[in-house]
Design a protein that fits this description.
Blueprint (H helix, E strand, L loop, with lengths): L1 H52 L4 H4 L14 H4 L1 H4 L2 H32 L5 H12 L7 H10 L6 H5 L6 H11 L4 H9 L4 H9 L4 H16 L3 H6 L8 H4 L11 H31 L5
Length: 294
């Protein structure tokens, strides 16, 4: 009888422990969601403020009591952009530099990753470690020798000079190598038995199986190149070679700043980046979370 009474009591205590753990996990999930929601609002708020400010007249931007919503919305800030600077040419330059850089980075990262993953050779590890080491070195640390090299090549104030530092992406090589390593060697051997050359294997086997990681690094590189400021500022002194980031300086006056014009230009500058990310965000997640094998 005593043993029969102990069993229901143990079951009741076990259910009580499960309920307590469930309530604790619920509170933990709510706390995590609250923290993430707060962080998301803090990150999105500056972008919302920038967009709304671009529709405000100058009298509503600089006030003692800031307001989020415009009282008298206007498009004058956007209409004045062509008068302030040739932003159409700046937009074209940014698109050209980012597009060419992205194509070169995608092809170079795939080719280098293929070699490092499937062709063992002497000093392979040393080469791979050197490539990884360059990820830790920011552009600003070697920008002077890079400028001297570009100047020696006579690429100052040219499109090749603007694109030159962005033709290689070390992290992209690492990323592609890790994905290509997951492709079975038997698949490549079967292609060789069928008479395929190494170039044909790269073009018909490796690239189709690396679409997701290629898309991910292409989007990341495009966004990075689009937002680059310091290198175009140094290498380009002619207005027709300026990018959108440099074009924002046209709103800096000697004694005043056109905040409405800056906000409108920033919206146009950020819009392509947001569009690319929103459209291809699934590719980024897929490229990071999965390998090249489906």
């Amino acid at each position: 009888m005593k043993q029969a009474a102990v069993l229901p009591r143990a079951a009741t205590e076990a259910r009580g422990g499960v309920r307590r753990r469930s309530r604790a996990s619920d509170w933990g999930a709510r706390l995590s969601h609250a923290v993430l929601l707060t962080g998301g609002v803090l990150m999105v708020l500056p972008f919302v403020w920038m967009v709304l400010t671009s529709f405000k007249p100058a009298t509503e931007i600089v006030t003692t009591t800031p307001r989020l919503l415009p009282q008298q919305p206007t498009l004058s800030n956007y209409a004045a952009l062509p008068e302030a600077a040739p932003f159409v040419r700046f937009f074209f330059n940014s698109m050209l530099i980012s597009g060419v850089s992205t194509l070169l980075v995608a092809f170079g990262a795939a080719a280098a990753g293929f070699v490092l993953a499937k062709y063992p050779f002497r000093f392979l590890t040393v080469c791979f470690v050197l490539i990884l080491a360059t990820i830790l070195i920011p552009l600003e640390t070697y920008i002077i020798p890079l400028y001297l090299m570009v100047n020696r090549l006579q690429w100052v104030n040219t499109y090749p000079g603007l694109i030159f530092p962005f033709v290689v992406m070390s992290s992209g090589i690492f990323f592609l190598r890790q994905n290509i390593m997951s492709i079975p060697n038997d698949l490549l051997d079967a292609a060789r038995v069928d008479g395929a050359s190494e170039w044909a294997i790269f073009r018909q086997v490796i690239l189709p199986l690396s679409v997701a990681p290629l898309a991910a690094i292409s989007i990341i590189n495009w966004v990075y190149t689009w937002s680059m400021f310091i290198w175009p500022l140094i290498i380009a002194s002619r207005t027709e070679l300026f990018t959108m980031e440099i074009g924002l300086m046209y709103f800096q006056r000697q004694f005043s700043v056109d905040y409405g014009g800056i906000m409108a230009a920033c919206v146009i500058t950020v819009l392509p980046v947001l569009t690319v990310f929103i459209v291809f965000r699934t590719r980024i997640i897929e490229g990071v979370a999965t390998t090249g094998i489906k």
